Amino acid sequence: MGKEFQVIYHYQIGLTTMALRTHRHPQYQTYIKDIEGDYMTDDTAREILHSGCLDDSSTYDGRRVATIHFTNYIQKTPILIDQSEGIIAIPTHSPDQEACCWLFLHHLSHVEAISSTRCVVVFNNHDRLILNVSAITIYEQVKKASVVLTRFCSNKQFNFSLNPKVKRSSKSRKVKD
Fold it and tell me: How far apart are CA 123 and CA 125, in angstroms?
């Protein structure tokens, strides 16, 4: 997050939203990764998600309850933001944890492992986001969100890949038998 960002006072989730991430700052609570730029806002990620759900005639809690009802995904439940556009937000951790980052399904290309507890999420536009979560966790969350997409947005399709192998340096070493 060393990039420049613009302060925005009311952010509306849309097809350009790529990620929402908690940001430790006295005023700006959320870092927003969007195709059109990087932003900071004083709204929390939960407030932004709730507002996005309201724009589609529901609430964050209503979407969560409906998803749990149909899928039984009680933990780290994906949230359907906009049914007609197929916009689904995926939490990387429990939404109550500060480490939670919300990824938007339709922008995800693939995930690459850095270590067993860190990964790089690669977006369709080749932007990258390093997260303190395993690649396997992201992959499992994407699978959950794909079920939600299929259940609630039957006309949408999604492709994603996992590269769980940790990248090693190109130096090789010899091992004695």
Answer: 5
Query: Strand pairing partners for 104?
Result: 89
pLDDT tens-digit profile of 96-114? 999 999 999 999 999 999 9
The answer to whether 79 touches 67, Cβ cutoff 8 Å, is: yes
Please check whether residue 91 is in contact with residue 100, taking contact to mean a CB–CB distance below 8 angstroms.
yes
Going by C-alpha positions, the residue among 116, 125, 96 that lies closest to residue 19 is 125
Q: What is the chain written as a DSSP string?
A: --S--EE-SS----TTEEEEEE---SS--EEEEETTEEEEESS-HHHHHHHHHHHTT--HHHHHHHHHHHH---SS--EEEETTTTEEEEESS-TTSTT-EEEEGGGEEEEEESSSS-EEEEETTS-EEEESS-HHHHHHHHHHHHHHHHHH-TT-----EEE-SPP--S-------
Residue 36, pLDDT score: 94
Q: Structure pTM?
A: 0.85
Closest CA to 30 of 14, 16, 10: 10
